[in-house]
Every structure is written in C-alpha cells, then in structure tokens.
Amino acid sequence: MPKITPYFSKKLIAWYIQNKRELPWRNTLNPYHIWLSEIMLQQTRVSQGLPYFLKFVAAYPKIEDLANAPEDEVLKLWQGLGYYSRARNLHATAKIISEDMRGVFPNNYKDLLKLKGVGDYTASAIASISFNQPEAVVDGNVYRVLSRHFSISTPINSTTGQKEFKQLAQQLIDKDQPGTFNQAIMEFGARYCVPQNPDCENCIFNNSCVAFQQNKVAVLPVKIKTKPVKKRFFNYLVVLSENEHTVLQQRTGKGIWQKLYEFPLIETSEEINLSSLKKLPQFQTFSEKINIENISLFNEKPVIHKLSHQHLSTRFWIVETLEDKENTVPISEVKNYAVPVLIADFVSEFFENY
Length: 354
What we know:
By secondary structure, the protein is α+β, with helices and mostly antiparallel strands.
C-alpha cells in the first residue's frame, strides 16, 4: 500500500473548491436528491444525466411522489437514459422507503447498502454527502486517479483490485469533510484526469503522480478484458391498420429493456431478406393473427444500436393491414409509451406526420 499523507486530500479539495461545477445535487444534503443523482449518473455523463435529474425532481418533489407514480410513467420519464434496471430499482426502493421506512432514508452505510439497486459506491456517496460519514466512493473516475497517481497496476475489475482501491480510497478520505473529498476526487477524474490525453504537464499532482513520472499514464488503469461483444439481429414488425392503429408489446423477460414496450419482434441469427422472413415460424404465427395486405422494409441499411456488451442490428418491416384488432394502439398514442431509444428514434422519424 502506498504511503499516505494529508497532502493529496488537502490539495484535491482545494482544487475542487476552486473548480467544481455548480450542480443542483451539490447544493443540498437531502438524501433523496443525492440518491437520485447518484443512480442516474451510473454509466452516464453529467451532461446527459442533469436534464433527467431536473425532470424527476420536478415530477416527484418527494420520494413519496416517486413511490406513488405508476411504473410505466417512471420508465417513460427515464426513456433515453439507458440501463433501465436502474429505473425499476429506483421505483422499487422509493416504495420501500416511503411505505416501510415512513419516507426516512437510512442514515448509515450499512443500512443504505440493504436498499435495492444500492451498491458500495452509492451507499458511500449518500453516507458521506448527506450524513458526513467517512465512507470513500470508488467509481471509474476514482480508479483512474488513484491508479495513475500511485502507479497501481492491479486490474480494477478484479476482486483483488476492487478491494485494494477501496482500502486506499478509505485511507485517503478527509474524515472532517468526507462528502467534499468524495465529490472532489470524482470531479477531478471526470474533468482533469480523463481517460485519453490528460493535461499532465499542468496537473496539480504532476510532482507526485508516479505514473506521470514513469510515463505510464496511458496504460493505467489496467482492466481485464471482458467477454466479446455479442451481435444480435432484430426485425421489428410495425403494424399499420387502415384506421391508423399499430401493435405494441411489453418486454417481460430478464434481458435488456425489461418492461419497456416495442413492436412485435423476430430475432434472427443474421440479417435476412423478406423472403427469408416470411418462412420463419415466428412470422407464420404472427401472420395468423394479422391479415397482412402488404409488407415492406423501411430501412435497407440496418440501424446499429450499441449496448455495453451487445450490438443490435435492427430493421423495421412495415406491415399494412385492413384489420384493427382489439389489442392495437392508436398511432397518435405510441409516443406516450415507455420504449427503448431505438424505438423512440424510429417512431419520431416514421410517425412524425401522424
């Protein structure tokens, strides 16, 4: 373990006070707002998460408001932010706190950790910022700053690495102002000690950063290679009835986009043409329910939608019918449903004149 001195923490906090961004969750100790911001900022840049934070606080000023909202409404408000399990966990946890804890957040790391969707990072952030407890946060920004400053090559996505960096961060934290320290190190990593081409020559730590002195900044932090990206091929069947209705289905499986809505989907092992599509058993089943008048391909070039470990190659097939089934949805109402951003973009482009 590197030698620890107050120098690092004091200098970091001084930098933060002079350079921090003014953000709404930094002007409050309200654990509801801190929790909301931290959940939203997981896997998400501040610039992307900020509008969503403002929308949620406006729609649900208190955690009881969030708890009482329909899940579909919460997912719709979350639409476009991705990693939708965060929204489902957010809603479930709001219900627990509102109903079982009378709207009062747990005030310590151990009890915060028991909440659904709250891991070490989020529990540490809330405990330190809202309740002034010396619990160090460790996220991607913190890994980067610490691995470079102390030249630590232990992989950050290994069990050993996670334990090592957590212990180091815990030793470094300023116990008198733990919330400020945690926000400072995350801000520094996000804005200065960035992944590519950081301005090391003008860094406040260039005299003490071991990686800079050893010319190892570009290779730190070290991360074990994860499994390769899986390629999937989606074929959406967009039903258009004569009186402007369509069909939407809710995803119920445990995979991506759980509980979001989409058009009827046929997934294939490769890109296919219309002739091949019509021969599929799934299409035969679909056509038994819909009296198809005509079918055409909307996008010859597939839409490539990239997720963390999956790349979706998607084509939209326009299915025209004279029928109007009971389970159809007026096209004018499709925009009110919580859908993946992939679907939302198509709806915006194709249905803009409806």
